Amino acid sequence: MDYLKAFVVGGLICVVGQILIDKTKLTPARILTSFVVIGVLLGAVGLYKPLVDFAGSGATVPLSGFGYNLYKGVKEAISEDGWLGIFTGGATASAGGIAGAIFFGFLAGLLGKPQEKS
């Protein structure tokens, strides 16, 4: 049942993104950035944690989950380090995911045949 909940919630988040791409004049970059900001805001008002508890990776893998992760990192860092945590918390909380994305992107570039679009 956990897999089904993750699939449905993650799929619905992606459907919202696709509808925004298809039906609005927003660029994909603005939509993706909006998802991160929405994740931060929903985390700050306490609405994203219940979604994560319900759907697990279906809520944490999309970009809104990245925003929620940034929020959690900043919140924890502020409680430990004071206002300096605003600057360090998000980077500390998301460092593993960012490092993984860079590593696997580099690996894909090595194994693939990158070329310019014409």
TrEMBL record:
UniProt keyword annotation of Transmembrane helix present: yes
Transmembrane feature ranges: 6-22, 29-48, 83-111
Keyword annotations: Membrane, Transmembrane, Transmembrane helix
UniProt keyword Membrane present: yes
One Pfam family named in its UniProt record: SpoVAC_SpoVAEB
PANTHER family from the UniProt entry: STAGE V SPORULATION PROTEIN AC-RELATED, STAGE V SPORULATION PROTEIN AEB
Protein name in UniProt: Stage V sporulation protein AE
UniProt source species: Ruminococcus bovis
Originating gene: spoVAE
